[in-house]
Design brief:
The structure is a single chain. This protein is mainly alpha-helical and 460 residues long. It has one domain: Growth Hormone, Chain: A (Up-down Bundle). It is 77% helix and 0% strand. Helix 1 crosses helix 9, helix 8 packs antiparallel against helix 17 and helix 12 packs antiparallel against helix 16. The longest helix is centred in the middle third of the chain and has 39 residues.
């Protein structure tokens, strides 16, 4: 085997393993979004407590992104990704055992660290792939965002597999608790796969370099500009992925039940059922098994609509976005992204009384634009900061993910609709894009030939 063939095989292993790891970790990170339909009434949670859980997981999976990016560049993706997977196993398992809001909140903070896997994978793949192929590689890796749809599509099926009482005297929990139990088992298997199957001789472009040198690019305006773009493309994606199941249930649940010709009692009592919590909800479910079965069926449809109408297009189009950015330039692609997001965002934000199906089609276009946008933003980073991808990518990922915090806070505390807040954020970001005049980091001095040669030199 020639050195080129060996390197190509190693790159393929890194891309495959990091993408699989990111997919499962992203699944774990956002699992409460779909499970909240069952968790909320069983534990008697309020809307405010649901927002707290959402914010806790997003913050936990965002605040350390900068550090994880640097650690990956210094110690290698193999070590850091394996350690991150193992960190999430125990709190993920204990989600299946929680009995109160406080216990669930603690678990959310701890398993939420899974969201930092994005910084690890971006830095790991950027270290292995040449510049001309990084757009596609990072886009393929970023498609691991599809993990946000796993619980939406398969969660209801997992819930139905094992009875609520569990099996083996509850050793394997049932109902919604079976989902985090399965994820914990898969995480252990994944950690072993990453450690034993990825290249032992990893690439560490930041080894031997000082922290001050690694963080030097933070002074450039383009880093903060990219962060705002990513807040719209990715942060909003995270926030919506978590909020859509409850949004569908609260806004379109009755209309969906009617469209699906579900139980007449369910349709008649829907507004009352939405408000039931704790023991009252459990008592109603026991007294009305037919309604409970149809609620389970309705949750399956909500998961399908949220997955196919938003999560899947946003995730699966990331590789396409990377390819487009490689071919036509990231900023050209991003201009089209903003145009699409502004048009669909305005449609969703205005009180037009959209039907559930019109809403879903419009949401699909919004998700597709976000997916292409996520890839194009991250294509800019190795283009301009090839030796600091871990640090810059980590900071952009951190600040971008803060959009996933800002939006739930706006939904919970301001008299604005879910999509009105998103539209405002998009307008602000698009405004900066236009004012930059196609010149990211306008006002910064151009790189000298020596600087350009140094930034584009091969990584170690």
């Amino acid at each position: 085997m020639t050195p080129d063939q060996l390197a190509a095989g190693q790159r393929a292993r890194v891309l495959t393993l990091s993408t699989v790891a990111f997919t499962l970790l992203f699944t774990v990170w956002l699992m409460l979004g779909m499970l909240s339909i069952k968790i909320k009434p069983e534990l008697g949670l309020t809307n405010g407590q649901l927002y707290n859980l959402t914010i806790a997981t997003i913050l936990s999976g965002s605040l350390l992104r900068f550090h994880f990016g640097i650690w990956t560049d210094r110690y290698g993706g193999r070590r850091v990704m394996t350690a991150l997977i193992l960190l999430t196993v125990v709190p993920t398992f204990f989600v299946s055992r929680v009995t109160s809001y406080s216990e669930l909140l603690i678990c959310a903070i701890l398993f939420g660290v899974a969201g930092n896997s994005f910084s690890v994978g971006i830095a790991w793949n950027a270290a292995w792939f040449p510049k001309e192929r990084q757009g596609v590689a990072l886009g393929v890796f970023g498609a691991g965002n599809v993990g946000a749809s796993v619980t939406k599509l398969f969660g209801p099926m997992f819930i139905a597999i094992v009875p609520a009482a569990g099996i083996f005297d509850g050793v394997i929990p049932g109902g919604w608790r079976f989902v985090p139990f399965v994820y914990a088992v898969l995480l252990v298997t994944l950690a072993a796969a990453v450690w034993f199957l990825s290249p032992r001789e990893d690439r560490t472009p930041a080894r031997g370099r000082s922290i001050s040198e690694l963080v030097a690019p933070m002074k450039h305006a383009r880093v903060w500009e990219y962060s705002l773009y990513y807040a719209v493309a990715f942060g909003a994606y995270v926030a919506l992925s978590g909020a859509l199941p409850q949004f569908y249930f609260g806004t379109y649940g009755k209309e969906l039940a009617e469209s699906l010709s579900l139980n007449e009692t369910l349709i008649a009592d829907f507004d009352t059922i939405k408000e039931l919590k704790g023991e009252a909800y459990i008592a109603y479910a026991v007294a009305n098994p037919a309604v409970q079965n149809d609620l389970n069926y309705l949750s399956k449809w909500i998961g399908v609509l949220a997955a196919f109408g938003f999560v899947l297009p946003a995730s699966l189009l990331r590789p396409v976005g990377g390819w487009l950015a490689d071919r036509f330039g990231a900023r050209t692609v991003l201009a089209g992204v903003f145009a699409g997001m502004l048009a669909t965002g305005a449609t969703l934000a205005l009180p037009l009384g959209l039907s559930v199906w019109t809403f879903t089609v419009t949401l699909l276009v919004l998700g597709a634009a976000m997916g292409v946008g996520m890839a194009s933003v991250f294509k800019m980073i190795p283009d301009h900061f090839p030796r600091e991808v871990g640090a810059v990518g980590g900071l952009v990922g951190l600040l971008g993910a803060m959009g996933g915090v800002a939006l739930p806070l706006a939904w919970a505390s301001l008299p604005v609709s879910t999509f009105a807040a998103l539209f405002v954020l998009t307008v602000v970001s698009a405004g900066w894009f236009v004012l930059s005049g196609g010149n990211p980091g306008a006002g910064e001095p151009a790189l000298t030939d020596t600087q350009r040669k140094r930034e584009t030199s091969p990584v170690r």
